[in-house]
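Field reference: sequence -> structure
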Amino acid sequence: MLHSHKEQRSGIEFPATIGRYKRGKVTSNEPEPGKAGVAISYRSDDAEVTVYVRALGDDVGQTSAYFLQDSLAGIKALEAQGIYSNVKIYGSIPDKERAGWKSAVFSSSFSNGFIILFIYCKVASEYLVKIRATTSNPKSDLLLTILESLQDIVDHASMEP
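Structure field:
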């Protein structure tokens, strides 16, 4: 039986399951030198959700909006490397956005089809959190539920002393 995972930098407790999503591996993640963190994955039949957490480090003063723009620039770089193709960025989801979070949706073509990716970014206290969801079924209520649940978990943890 899986137990919850407490992320060391932030103290956030990530449950073993959220609805039909089961937590997978917790792995090290360092997208750029000096920006080490962890990636916590959740999977269901129709989507994969990954939460990235890393220390704020030298990014003191960074906003959630800047963090999102930096993440979207990374996606365009991955497209230039051929990892994504036909990327279309749709910008924020204002009616779904919470205080402190910035979000965007983008689509991409793959050899095996078309996917939609949701990105939610937050600068919280001394750490950065990014939630990325990948699906071919963007209207899934289950997907929206896990995205809301993960934001609740982060928001609650960032309010604790």
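Note: The chain has a mean pLDDT of 85.
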